[in-house]
Write a sequence for this structure.
C-alpha cells in the first residue's frame, strides 16, 4: 500500500492548475507578422493542424505529469510490505516437561491450547512453541490454525526433559521483536509447576512483549513419589526415594535385571521426605540392564517412577591413598560413585589400582620404590607429595628428583601454572587467580629431571607440580604438601577441584560415564552416539548405557494463583512511533523512479513544445 | 543635376554596394549608378545589319542581296563574296514589374522591400537600355490597368518610366497572369519581356500567357524576387502571420511547417525555371538580401557569356 512520508506536500498538486490555466488562457501571439503570401503555407498548415492538435495536449500532459511527479518526490511515497499491522502477535509456549504428563495437568493444558489455536486468525498470528530443555518453534508467525495444530500434533506433548522458561521467554521475546503488531503477547501453557520458575531473573528482561499470560489459570495439585537417584557401588545398589506428598505413602520398589525381577520390597515413604534403600548387587561378568520401578498409590507423574541403570563388568576406578589426618580432605575431594577409595597400606601397595597417592610414607614400611615401579609399569598413576621427610626425599631421588642446596624459602606463591594441561585446563573456565593468592610455607627448592614436565612453579621457577611419564604410568610430584601447615589454605576449594581433575586425568581411560540424563541433544560415548531423548537402557557395542528422566521435574509444588510475569516486562517508554519510511527493510520507495519520470516528461515537453502552435 | 549625379556615381565606380544604393533618395540616380558600374563591354547585340561594322565574308549564293556583294574582292579575286556586318542592337524591351501587395514585404534581414528591389532592377535595366539606345517600355502590374507605352530610348521616356515606378499601385488581389495577358497586344513582336515579380502563382497558370508571347517571338526573362524570409522561412516560435495580399491571418508553428514549406518553394522554383526554359526564356532568382548591383552584374555577366556562346 502506497503511503506518503510527507503528505503535506501533496498540496503542491494544486500547482497543476497553473499549466491548465496557462493552457486555457494560452496567449496567442498578439503581434502579427506580415508575410507576402500563404501560397505555400495553406496546404501545409492544414495538413499539420491535426497533428498539432494532439501535440499540444501531449505538451500539456507532460507539463502536468512532470509537476505531479515533482510534488510526489517531495511527498516521498513508499510502499510498506506489511499490508496491515496485525492486532496482536502471540508466541504460544507449551510446556512439555514430564511433569505435564499427569492427567491433572495434561487435560486442562490441551484444552487451553485448543482454545488458543481457535483464536488464531490472519489478524492475530501465532508462533507455536514446544518447550523441553530446548525451545522448539513452528517456524514463523502464522495465521493458519491448521498448520499450528499440525505442529503440536507432530511434537510429543510430554518429554522426559525439564523445561527452561528463562530461555524460552528470552527467545519468545526476541521473536516478538521481529514482528509488527499492536499487541505482543506470550502465552505459557504449563502445569504451574514451581520448579522452572525458581531460577528466573529478578530484574525485568522482556523488552518486546506487552503481556505474558500463564494458562491454564488453575491446575489441580498433583501427587508424586519419585526415585531420586540410584547408584551402583561395589557393595550393591543404593536407591534414594522421595515422597512429595504431605501424607505418608506406601509404595512398592522392584528391581529388574534384564527384565527379570530380582528384588521387590514394600515400604513406607515419609511425608514430604526421602528414604534411602541399599540392596546387595553383584556386578555380573557381562553387561546387563537394570531397572528400578516404584509403585505408589497417590502418584500422578509416572515418568520419575522408573530408574534405569547399567551393570557393566568394569568396576569403579580404584584409588588408594595413604591415611593422614592432615590430608583427609583429599579423600573427601575424591569421594564419588565412580571411584572406589581405599587406604594405602603396605599390604595393598602391590595390588592393582588406578591411582596411588602417597602423601605420607610413614604407614609404609620398607622401600616402596619397587612396588611403585611395578605399579607404574602396570599403568597405575602415582602421586608423590613431598612432606619433607628423608624417605620421601630418597624416593624422589629414585625418580631423578633432587633438591638444591641452600636455605628453604620461607614462603612463596605460585609464579607459573600450566593452564593448558588437562589438570588445570578447567580452571580457565573459572577464575584461576586464586591459585596465585595461595602462599606456601617452607617451600623446598626441588630440581626436576629433564624428562619431567613442570605443571606449576613457585616464585623463582622452583617446581611445584611435576609430571613424568614412567613406563606405562604417570608420576606426579607435588613439591609441597597441601595442608594447613604448609599453606595459608585460603582457597580450599581450589585444591578439591585439583584433586578431582588429577584423578580424572589419570583414570580417564579406565572409567567411563554410563548413566545420562534425558536431553534433546545426543551424547558421544566411546562406543558411539547415544540418543538421550527417551529414558531407558541402551547397548552400544556390548556396553550398557542408561538414560533417565531429569528428576528436577519431580517437584510438584505449584506457583501461586497470583503469580504473574508482568514484573519481568521492561516498561516501554512513551516514545513517538518511528515513521514507517525510516524503517530498514520492508520499504520500497519510488524517489528515483519519480525523478526519472520528471526528467522524461520535461524532455518530452521540451522536444514537443516548440513544435506546436500552442 | 543629372550630370552631377552621374559624375559623382562614376567616381564611385563599381564599389557601390546595396546599402549605399538604398540610402540614395532618388530612384533615377539609383538606377544610373547601378548601370554605370556594369555597362562597359557587357551588352552586345546578337543581330547582324547593313549599317554595322564588317564582320566576315562568305560565298555568294543566289538570292543574296546584290548590295551585299563585296565588289572589291570580286575585282581582286574574281569571286563573288558577300560582306556580312555586325549590326547594332535595335532592342525593344518591355518590362513588367509586379505591383502586387506581396511585393511590399521586407523582413528584418533585408535592406529593402521586394518592390524596391524590383524597381532597382527595372531602373537598372532601363538605364542600361537607354544607354545602348535600345527602346524600352515599362508597365507596373497592379489593380489599375497600366497601359504599356510605345517603346523609346529617349531621356524623357526614361524619366517617365521612372515616374511610373515611384507610384506604387494598390496591389490587393492582383492577378499577375491576367494582367500580363491584358498587356500582350501592346507588346511588339520580337521584344524582350522582362517580368519582375515574386511569382505567387502556379506555373500552369503562366504557361498559356507565355505561349502567347512566344507566338510573338518574344524572349521571356523572368526575374524572381524573393525575400530571405520567404526563401528560407527562418522563423522558430509560434507566430501569427498576415498575408499581405488578402489580409488573411494564420497562427502557425514554423518548426512544424518549415520542411514542407521549403520543399514547396523548391518545387515552385523548379517549376518556374522549367517553364521559362520550355518557352525559350530564362528564370533568375534574386533574393533581397543580396545587393541588386551585385546580383544584376552577375546576371548580365552570365547572360552575355551565354549569348556569346550561342552567337
Amino acid at each position: 500500500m502506497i503511503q506518503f512520508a510527507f503528505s503535506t506536500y501533496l498540496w503542491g498538486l494544486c500547482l497543476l492548475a497553473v499549466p491548465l490555466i496557462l493552457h486555457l488562457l494560452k496567449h496567442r501571439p498578439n503581434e502579427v507578422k506580415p508575410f507576402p503570401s500563404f501560397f505555400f503555407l495553406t496546404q501545409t498548415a492544414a495538413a499539420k493542424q491535426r497533428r498539432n492538435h494532439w501535440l499540444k495536449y501531449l505538451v500539456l500532459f507532460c507539463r502536468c505529469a512532470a509537476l505531479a511527479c515533482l510534488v510526489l518526490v517531495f511527498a516521498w511515497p513508499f510502499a510498506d510490505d506489511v499490508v496491515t499491522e496485525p492486532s496482536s502477535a502471540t508466541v504460544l509456549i507449551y510446556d512439555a516437561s514430564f511433569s505435564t504428563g499427569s492427567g491433572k495437568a495434561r487435560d486442562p493444558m490441551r484444552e487451553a491450547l485448543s482454545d488458543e489455536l481457535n483464536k488464531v486468525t490472519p489478524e492475530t498470528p501465532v508462533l507455536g512453541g514446544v518447550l523441553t530443555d530446548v525451545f522448539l518453534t513452528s517456524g514463523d508467525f502464522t495465521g493458519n490454525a491448521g498448520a499450528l495444530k499440525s505442529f503440536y500434533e507432530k511434537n510429543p506433548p510430554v518429554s522426559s526433559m525439564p523445561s527452561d522458561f528463562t530461555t524460552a521467554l528470552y527467545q519468545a521475546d526476541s521473536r516478538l521483536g521481529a514482528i509488527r503488531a499492536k499487541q505482543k503477547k506470550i502465552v505459557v501453557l504449563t502445569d504451574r509447576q514451581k520448579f522452572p520458575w525458581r531460577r528466573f531473573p529478578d530484574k525485568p528482561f522482556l523488552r518486546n512483549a506487552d503481556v505474558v499470560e500463564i494458562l491454564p489459570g488453575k491446575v489441580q495439585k498433583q501427587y508424586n513419589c519419585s526415585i531420586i537417584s540410584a547408584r551402583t557401588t561395589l557393595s550393591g545398589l543404593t536407591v534414594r526415594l522421595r515422597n512429595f506428598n504431605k501424607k505418608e505413602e506406601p509404595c512398592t520398589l522392584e528391581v529388574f535385571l534384564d527384565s527379570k525381577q530380582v528384588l521387590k520390597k514394600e515400604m513406607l515413604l515419609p511425608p514430604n521426605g526421602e528414604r534411602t534403600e541399599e540392596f546387595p548387587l553383584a556386578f555380573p561378568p557381562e553387561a546387563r540392564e537394570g531397572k528400578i520401578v516404584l509403585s505408589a498409590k497417590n502418584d500422578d507423574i509416572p515418568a520419575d517412577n522408573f530408574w534405569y541403570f547399567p551393570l557393566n563388568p568394569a568396576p569403579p576406578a580404584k584409588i588408594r591413598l595413604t591415611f593422614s589426618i592432615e590430608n583427609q580432605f583429599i579423600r573427601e575431594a575424591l569421594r564419588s560413585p565412580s571411584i572406589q577409595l581405599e587406604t594405602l597400606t603396605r599390604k595393598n601397595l602391590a595390588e592393582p589400582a588406578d591411582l596411588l597417592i602417597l602423601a605420607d610414607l610413614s604407614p609404609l614400611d620398607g622401600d616402596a620404590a619397587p612396588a611403585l615401579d611395578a605399579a607404574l609399569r602396570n599403568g597405575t598413576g602415582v602421586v608423590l607429595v613431598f612432606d619433607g621427610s628423608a624417605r620421601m626425599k630418597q624416593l624422589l631421588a629414585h625418580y631423578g628428583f633432587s633438591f638444591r642446596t641452600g636455605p628453604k624459602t620461607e614462603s612463596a606463591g605460585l609464579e607459573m601454572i600450566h593452564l593448558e594441561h588437562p589438570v588445570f585446563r578447567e580452571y580457565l573456565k573459572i577464575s584461576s587467580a586464586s591459585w596465585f593468592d595461595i602462599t606456601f610455607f617452607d617451600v623446598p627448592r626441588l630440581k626436576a629431571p629433564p624428562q619431567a614436565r613442570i605443571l606449576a612453579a613457585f616464585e623463582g621457577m622452583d617446581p611445584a607440580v611435576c609430571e613424568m611419564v614412567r613406563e606405562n604410568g604417570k608420576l606426579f610430584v607435588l613439591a609441597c604438601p597441601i595442608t594447613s601447615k604448609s599453606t595459608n589454605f585460603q582457597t580450599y576449594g581450589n585444591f578439591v577441584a585439583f584433586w578431582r581433575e588429577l584423578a580424572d586425568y589419570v583414570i580417564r581411560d579406565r572409567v567411563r560415564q554410563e548413566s545420562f540424563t534425558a536431553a534433546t541433544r545426543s551424547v558421544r560415548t566411546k562406543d558411539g552416539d547415544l540418543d538421550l531423548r527417551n529414558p531407558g537402557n541402551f547397548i552400544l557395542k556390548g556396553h550398557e548405557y542408561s538414560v533417565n528422566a531429569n528428576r528436577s521435574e519431580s517437584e510438584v509444588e505449584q506457583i501461586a494463583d497470583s503469580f504473574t510475569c508482568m514484573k519481568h516486562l521492561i516498561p516501554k517508554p512513551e516514545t513517538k512511533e518511528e515513521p514507517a519510511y525510516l524503517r530498514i527493510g520492508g520499504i520500497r520507495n519510488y524517489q528515483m523512479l519519480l525523478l526519472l519520470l520528471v526528467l522524461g516528461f520535461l524532455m518530452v515537453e521540451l522536444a514537443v513544445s516548440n513544435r506546436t502552435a500552442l | 543635376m543629372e550630370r552631377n549625379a552621374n559624375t559623382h556615381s562614376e567616381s564611385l565606380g563599381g564599389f557601390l554596394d546595396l546599402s549605399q544604393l538604398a540610402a540614395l533618395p532618388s530612384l533615377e540616380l539609383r538606377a544610373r549608378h547601378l548601370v554605370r558600374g556594369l555597362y562597359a563591354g557587357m551588352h552586345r547585340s546578337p543581330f547582324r545589319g547593313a549599317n554595322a561594322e564588317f564582320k566576315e565574308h562568305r560565298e555568294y549564293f543566289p538570292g543574296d542581296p546584290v548590295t551585299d556583294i563585296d565588289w572589291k574582292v570580286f575585282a581582286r579575286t574574281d569571286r563573288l563574296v558577300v560582306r556580312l556586318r555586325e549590326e547594332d542592337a535595335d532592342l525593344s524591351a518591355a518590362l513588367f514589374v509586379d505591383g502586387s501587395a506581396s511585393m511590399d514585404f521586407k523582413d528584418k534581414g533585408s535592406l529593402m522591400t521586394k518592390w524596391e528591389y524590383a524597381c532597382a532592377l527595372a531602373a537598372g535595366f532601363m538605364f542600361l537600355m537607354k544607354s545602348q539606345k535600345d527602346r524600352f517600355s515599362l508597365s507596373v502590374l497592379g489593380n489599375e490597368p497600366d497601359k504599356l507605352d510605345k517603346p523609346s530610348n529617349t531621356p524623357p521616356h526614361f524619366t517617365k518610366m521612372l515616374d511610373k515606378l515611384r507610384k506604387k499601385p494598390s496591389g490587393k488581389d492582383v492577378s499577375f497572369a491576367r494582367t500580363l495577358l491584358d498587356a500582350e497586344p501592346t507588346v511588339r513582336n520580337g521584344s524582350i519581356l522582362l517580368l519582375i515579380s515574386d511569382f505567387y502563382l502556379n506555373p500552369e497558370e503562366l504557361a498559356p500567357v507565355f505561349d502567347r508571347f512566344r507566338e510573338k517571338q518574344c524572349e521571356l526573362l523572368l526575374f524572381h524576387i524573393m525575400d530571405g524570409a520567404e526563401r528560407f522561412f527562418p522563423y522558430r516560435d509560434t507566430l501569427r502571420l498576415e498575408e499581405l495580399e488578402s489580409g488573411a491571418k494564420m497562427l502557425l508553428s514554423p518548426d512544424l511547417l518549415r520542411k514542407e514549406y521549403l520543399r514547396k518553394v523548391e518545387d515552385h522554383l523548379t517549376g518556374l525555371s522549367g517553364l521559362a526554359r520550355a518557352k525559350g526564356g530564362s528564370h533568375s532568382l534574386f533574393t533581397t538580401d543580396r545587393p541588386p548591383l551585385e546580383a544584376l552584374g552577375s546576371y548580365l555577366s552570365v547572360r552575355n557569356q551565354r549569348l556569346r556562346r550561342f552567337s
Remarks:
- The longest strand of chain A covers residues 260-269.
